[in-house]
From TrEMBL, chains A, B:
Protein family membership: Belongs to the ornithine cyclodeaminase/mu-crystallin family.
EC number: 1.5.1.49
GO biological process: carboxylic acid metabolic process
One of the record's GO cellular component terms: cytoplasm
GO terms for MF: oxidoreductase activity
Protein name in the entry: Delta(1)-pyrroline-2-carboxylate reductase
Keywords: Oxidoreductase
Entry superkingdom: Bacteria
Gene3D superfamilies: NAD(P)-binding Rossmann-like Domain (3.40.50.720), ornithine cyclodeaminase, domain 1 (3.30.1780.10)
Gene that produces this protein: lhpI_2
């Protein structure tokens, strides 16, 4: 008996997937999640003592593709580069054929979280932003802020980006990079308020260390993509924003505990019943998306294992099709 | 930045570890577990629809070796060999350097569960059996029954084995294999009672489908190694055996729920306080092992992630030392 496992390096993974495809795999994941096609156990992890970070293991089974994925991802090891010569966060994805549980692929997993998180904003923009939205405001200018633009740029014409960050160096680098890579003009805002007031689409991608955006700054018709809050205690938005907004989440269970939605719930600004939909329901046509140009819509994303599953599966299939990667026989 | 990950095939794994070493790694694991050196989150898994089985992911961090292990193991896919040409159960182990969370090794994991489970009986025999024990009784004659003998044969002289199984074909094969491999005479018992009455050491390795061993058959001084029960509802022993026995477990938490110990607890034959020790406490000298030749001792083993950790780490180190395996760079 023999089993061939495909090994894919980081550089191969990066060549094997385009952002346009990731937008498709994330849409597929959201729809699958709301079609009773997904098994996602609670993730398990180990927290190490500072200055070390943590490592998580996220498991997802998608009946539609008969693939079980397991992503190990670590982060928060600031001394890794200098002391050990490895990145501060790394990732590995295993894919199993769910018909047999044979290990069909081991791939570097350090790019996928960024890609599938980037794509989720674009998926929400298609479903929830105004059709005439042109201006994006970016609170946060790190790697994930760029990913959001990379993805949204695939699905709409961005006229201008108003950006803000705590540090002006990061803001300047973001402006230079975005203008060079996408040719979209970036306005460096003098204040968060100034930036937010310009938004048709507001994206928050900070570390979630507290309220950054006040409710009165948000103009009618804005679509908000809330990315940075993915753990209990993190926060980016004034919870009052939720009071009169249409709230869409990736997973009600996850967002109630770990997403931006935890705050309006715990402050009784809204109840769980006040969550309009999981985004898969909107994509499946089971619940409406945006219904007027005046609505404020919020998409709260915490990230789901099934997004890793569909995205890694696409990478695997592209690799097989293009004969990229190295086969290894763990047993013969 | 560069990371070299060692890949080890099943055949290499089998060459890289001897049972004598596994007895050492399992002892190390038990001691570590009772020395506040271990983090073992609850395992996660996915149950597929019959005729498919399940896949589990078990995570363990051992501070003593600074290794995090993750074992994926599947089982119960009867159609795999004929329909898909792969075994009915498979396994993969990832090892991470806990200082950085870099992936240092991916090895086939289909042999390790059998090896470390085999070794646990021998570890318990050293700690709990009579020093003059000579005769073993084996209820069950499958792969794990052989593993138990392979391990115990490393630490004592076995004079004879009395064996019993539901099917006489399995029993005959066991006799032939054990006599050829170890030169130990095997008596094929006509009944369970006949076999059990001969035991200095009684080992049960069946699928745990119900009570097989009655309390009155057990003679004073017997050491019982209870292997087969590792899930809620499984059972091999009359729970009355526990009433006057010295009960030692691998993990009180696990054995109370999933081990043979679940039954005397649920029948109020004993309370959790009646569990004498976790075996690590005995090995560390914190609690006594056997204290007389008349005691009946029971070792209830459910299996812990930390046993996979110490055993796989030994295999990894042996591979590095002997320059066996294939390095793969998941990123450069």
């Amino acid at each position: 008996m023999q089993m061939k496992t495909l090994l894919l390096k980081k550089e191969e993974v990066s060549r094997l997937i385009r952002m346009k495809e990731v937008i498709g795999t994330v849409e597929e994941a959201y729809k699958a999640f709301n079609s009773d096609q997904v098994v996602q156990p609670d993730y398990i992890g180990i927290d190490l003592h500072p200055p070390r970070g943590d490592i998580d293991f996220k498991l997802g089974y998608y009946k539609g593709n008969e693939i079980i994925s397991m992503k190990a991802s670590s982060g928060g090891f600031p001394n890794n580069p200098t002391t050990y010569g490895v990145p501060s966060g790394m990732g590995t994805i295993l894919l199993f054929d769910a018909r047999t549980c044979a290990l069909i692929c081991v791939m570097d997993g350090s790019l996928i979280t960024g890609l599938r998180t980037g794509a989720c904003g674009a998926v929400s923009v298609k479903a929830l932003a105004r059709k005439n939205a042109k201006r994006i405001t970016s609170i946060g200018t790190g790697n994930q802020a760029r990913m959001q633009i990379r993805a949204i740029n695939e699905i709409m014409k961005i006229e201008a980006i108003h950006a803000w960050d705590h540090t002006s160096e990061s803001l300047s680098r973001y402006k230079a990079d975005i203008e060079r890579e996408f040719g979209i003009p970036v306005v460096m805002a003098n204040s968060k308020k100034e930036a937010v007031e310009q938004a048709d689409i507001l994206i928050t991608t900070t570390r979630g260390k507290g309220e950054l955006v006040e409710a009165e700054w948000i103009k009618p018709g804005t679509h908000i993509v809330a990315i940075g809050t993915d753990a209990k205690g993190k926060q980016e938005l004034d919870p009052e924003i939720f009071r009169n907004a249409k709230v869409v989440v990736d997973s009600i269970t996850q967002c109630s505990e770990k997403g931006e939605t935890q705050h309006p719930l715990s402050k009784n600004i809204m109840s769980k019943d006040g969550i309009h939909a999981e985004i898969g329901e909107v994509l499946l046509g089971e619940k409406p998306g945006r219904e007027s140009d005046e609505e404020i819509t919020i998409f709260d994303s915490t990230g789901m294992a099934i997004q890793d599953n569909t995205t890694a599966t696409k990478i695997y299939r592209n690799a097989i099709e293009n004969k990229i990667g190295t086969f290894f026989e763990f047993f013969e």
